[in-house]
Amino acid sequence: MRKHVKGNVSWVGYIDWELETFHGDDYSIMNGSSQNAYLIEEEKTVLIDTVWTPHRFDFVENLKKEIDLNKIDYIIANHGECDHSGALTALMDEIPGKPIYCTANAVKSIEGQYGKRGWNFNVVKTGDSLDIGNGKKLVFVEMRMLHWPDSMAAYMTGDNILFANDAFGQHFAVEELFNDKANQCLLYKEALKYFVNILNPFAPILKKKLAEIAALNLQFDIIAPSHGAIWRENPLQIVEKYAQWSDAYQENQVTVAYDTMWEGTTKLAHAIAAEISRQSPETVVKVFNVAKADKNEIMTEVFKSKAIAVGSPTVGNSILSSVAGWLEFLKQLKFKNKKAAAFGCYGWSGESVKILKELLAGAGFAVVDEEIRSLWNPEESDFAAVPALVSSLLAPSPKE
Ligand code: FEO
How many folded domains does the chain comprise? Predict the structure, then answer.
């Protein structure tokens, strides 16, 4: 069923209340999600994006109830990832030959996934536009690497709507569609989690792109992403947040992340957390066992932190596999401007802290010299080393 967005623009996507994970199991979904597609009915009829592959037949059947598919003049594929292009196969079976407007890289990704089917691709680049009648046009802006090489946004003049695709989205199901109708706390929680876990690796590119878009002096009445709530009330609020988040963001927060075998490393983690609060009562402290807590939620807290402490006992001359996997994800997210410390228990060889420090440095963190290596279980001498480690973590870094 269509939902009215503005003027002659409707939402025709899919609200995914049951989705539990995204990108395979790499991204946890806590509050549903949506794949937003849009229908523009000016003198020309335009479909912007589709939905994820499993919903392709429902999508096409629902669209048929709204319009005669043959009336579609143009299809815009802002991004080739299958959560937006997945219904193209079913749609194009109905209306073969209709022109699809997308970037050159989107042709590669769409044909790469679905094969060469002879679709009528029309390649566009930044600044190209498409007349849709009634004095309005769609202006295309390439969003390369935000977050795929093929990503693009489309700006609709007249109604001043930015169809931003993944940028400014959230994995968040909002039946009422708009940001002003959504639970504000959840909206921002999900917008930040999405930014951290999907877009942060490309933050330097995003920072430049935001400046480029600002220089165009466009008016934005609505920012319509491809996931979650549509930004209708003060749409620039999310642009301003993105500008902050893409600039080595941090709050007065420290996160302690660890796993443990026999609770010795847990005791160190808790002692570090308590000492942070003692030395700096205004600092927010978050503590997570990485084997038990959701990794995307932890990363969102790491993103907000100015420093982290990471712990693992030594096992097999290395670290626990839970911590190793977590650190690999940490590296992928390319956080900037953060300090780190390492700690852990051991029984004999004791390599874990050295390995943790190397991996944290490799993930781009400024690793402090202070460390805690505790033989068997933490003793008084180990706890006595906690204040110096915390003091070093809390000391201002050069940028502060
Ligand atoms: Fe929502 Fe990159 O797909």
Answer: 2
212/284 same-domain check: no
Q: Do 259 and 238 fall into the same domain?
A: no
Ligand 1: lining residues by beta carbon, under 6 Å: 79, 81, 83-84, 147-148, 166, 226-227
Apex 301 CA angle, 297 and 303, nearest 5? 115
Task: Compute φ and ψ for 366, nearest 5 degrees.
Answer: -85, 105
Q: Pick the catalytic residue: 166, 275, 301, 371? A: 166
Give the domain-ending residue among 245, 271, 289: 245
Q: Which of 214, 245, 276 is the last residue of a domain?
A: 245
Q: Answer whether 345's CB lies under 8 Å from 378's CB.
A: yes
Kindly report the pTM of this predicted structure: 0.96
**Domain CATH code at residue 86:** 3.60.15.10
Residues 192 and 273 in one domain: no
Q: pLDDT tens across 26-49, in order?
A: 999 999 999 999 999 999 999 999
Considering the candidates 41, 84, 227, 275, report the single residue annotated as catalytic: 227
28 CA distance to ligand 1 middle (Å): 15
The parent domain of residue 311 ranges over 254-393
Q: Is-catalytic flag, 83?
A: yes
Distance from the CA of 350 to the center of ligand 1, in angstroms?
42
Distance 190 CA to ligand 1 centre (A): 15
User: Does 48 reside within a domain?
Assistant: yes
SS (H, E, C) 265-299: HHHHHHHHHHHHHHHCCCCEEEEEECCCCCHHHHH
Q: Give 187-235 pLDDT, tens digit per residue.
A: 999 999 999 999 999 999 999 999 988 888 899 999 999 999 999 999 9
Instruction: Provide the CATH number for the domain around residue 364.
Output: 3.40.50.360
Using CA of residue 113, residue 114, residue 118, residue 123, what is the dihedral sign? negative
- The type of residue at 113 is Q
